[in-house]
């Protein structure tokens, strides 16, 4: 497939989302926020009261996900769930259902479909390792857990949610643990990924670095 992909993977609150969306904007590329697909599935599962052990039921939701992306807005059917899917409860459920192989399988084809001309910036955990192993550029974004907790805190407050620093640190550590230790598509850098630690970097600086790597492979 000749359509270029830039894969940006990393842990939660590493700044991936912001960097991926700005890089996409600068290059005029499409954007895949793969975490949103897991969050949308999780939101539906929570609303329907499905339990984690109902893997088949949750995979069915993923397979028939009525997701629609419009600029920065994300819809389930005609409901704008952009804010709702960012709640911590939904993120935690997303990371649990993301460990289910049938759920990952169900979302696989949907993700490939985002690869359209002139190119795609794909943001997630396994973009460079599993979904787009042939990506032209792979970046693994990291930041210290403290820096990430600070960012998540600010994000939540800005969006009008309440937040507690100690709870956030604990949640982040638990989620890192789940994402890196799971058997299927764990959060690990691809062998050919560029590592970028953004603990002491602004989003703008990270964007310039990614664009420079893309321009000068
Ligand atoms: O990136 P975001 O925090 O929105 O992702 C929510 C959850 O979805 C993550 O904690 C992770 O467990 C899961 N995920 C994944 N693979 C991806 C993207 C997200 O397993 N490519």
From TrEMBL:
Binding residues for ATP: 10-18
Pfam families cross-referenced by the UniProt entry: Cytidylate_kin
Subcellular location(s) per record: Cytoplasm
Predominant subcellular localization, coarse grouping: cytoplasm
Residue ranges of domain Cytidylate kinase in the record: 6-213
EC number in record: 2.7.4.25
Coiled coil residues, start to end: none
Catalysed reaction equations from the record: CMP + ATP = CDP + ADP; dCMP + ATP = dCDP + ADP
GO MF term set: kinase activity
Keywords assigned: ATP-binding, Cytoplasm, Kinase, Nucleotide-binding, Transferase
Top class in the EC scheme: transferase
Domain of life according to the entry: Bacteria
Classification via HAMAP family: Cytidyl_kinase_type1
Protein family (similarity comment): Belongs to the cytidylate kinase family. Type 1 subfamily.
Protein name, entry field: Cytidylate kinase
């Amino acid at each position: 497939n000749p359509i270029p992909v830039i894969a940006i993977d990393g842990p939660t609150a590493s700044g991936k989302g912001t960097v991926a969306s700005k890089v996409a904007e600068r290059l005029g590329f499409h954007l895949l926020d793969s975490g949103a697909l897991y969050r949308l599935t999780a939101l539906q599962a929570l609303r329907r009261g499905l339990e984690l052990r109902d893997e088949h039921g949750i995979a069915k939701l993923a397979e028939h996900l009525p997701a629609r992306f419009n600029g920065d807005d994300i819809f389930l059917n005609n409901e704008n769930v952009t804010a709702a899917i960012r709640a911590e409860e939904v993120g935690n459920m997303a990371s649990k259902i993301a460990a289910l192989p049938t759920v990952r399988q169900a979302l696989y084809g949907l993700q490939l479909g985002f690869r359209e001309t002139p190119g795609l910036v794909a943001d997630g955990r396994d973009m460079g390792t599993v979904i787009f192993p042939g990506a032209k550029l792979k970046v693994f974004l990291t930041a210290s857990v403290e820096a990430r907790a600070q960012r998540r805190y600010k994000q939540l407050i800005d969006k009008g949610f309440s937040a507690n620093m100690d709870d956030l640190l604990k949640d982040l550590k638990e989620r890192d643990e789940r994402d890196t230790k799971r058997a299927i598509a764990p959060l690990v850098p691809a062998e050919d990924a560029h590592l970028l630690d953004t603990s002491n970097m602004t989003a703008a600086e990270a964007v310039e670095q990614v664009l420079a790597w893309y321009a000068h492979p």
